[in-house]
Design brief:
alpha/beta; four-stranded mixed β-sheet; globular
């Protein structure tokens, strides 16, 4: 179930029943504690995490990745952290919180002290005409950036939203995301990317731009 990515990172996979795409969750470990990021709920997940460390929290990067977050946090007896997002014309954070019954979760942002010393960075790139492309938090842990929908690996190459998910005929959305993520990667110096879909990029992030 849990696939080792690095000495302190594990992942597991499921399938999005609506979009038919692969969804990936990650477990981050530090000093004997473990945190789940964007967790798809699969049988035995709670017990498997407890074997690896003391549960310290469940963190969502965006509201499309609620997945099994609430259930896992409840099973583990830990807090559920949800991003404090501005939203877009199409997505209202307050409404999504209500729809997913996340009212009791803890909102977090760039200044929030998250478990394991994880740092949050708001990823909200806009096209040249001012249209936001994604609105989520990218997490910085150790030498990793953890993204929800902004980017992921595929065939050892980085893929930027909205590839594989929705059309982008002029490439403007991809260009906006790429520019923002490249800036964050350079600022943090992270060498690896953990994505909410498909594959991880280990040790090659800086060479992808």
């Amino acid at each position: 179930m849990l696939i080792p990515v690095a000495k302190n990172v594990f992942k597991w996979k499921s399938n999005d029943p609506e979009l038919g795409i692969e969804q990936v969750g990650h477990a981050l470990i530090s000093t004997g504690s473990i945190v789940a990021i964007d967790p798809p709920m699969v049988p035995g997940l709670s017990d498997a995490m407890k074997v690896l460390g003391k549960p310290a929290g469940v963190i969502l990067t965006n509201y499309s990745h609620t997945r099994g977050g609430s259930a896992l946090a409840r099973n583990l007896g830990v807090d559920l952290y949800i991003p404090d997002l501005k939203g877009t014309d199409r997505r209202n954070p307050a409404e999504e919180i209500r729809q997913h019954h996340l009212e009791k979760a803890i909102k977090y942002g760039p200044n929030t002290k998250l478990p394991l010393g994880i740092k949050a960075h708001n990823m909200r790139p806009e096209t040249e005409d001012g249209q936001p492309v994604v609105d989520e938090m990218i997490l910085h842990f150790d030498d990793f950036l953890v993204a929800g929908d902004s980017a992921w690996g595929y065939g050892n190459k980085i893929v930027f939203f909205p590839a594989h998910i929705m059309p982008d005929p002029d490439g403007k959305r991809k260009a906006a995301v790429q520019k923002s993520l490249e800036k964050l990667a350079k600022e943090t110096g992270a060498s690896s990317l953990l994505g909410g879909h498909w594959d991880d990029l280990i040790g090659t992030l800086q060479q992808q731009f």
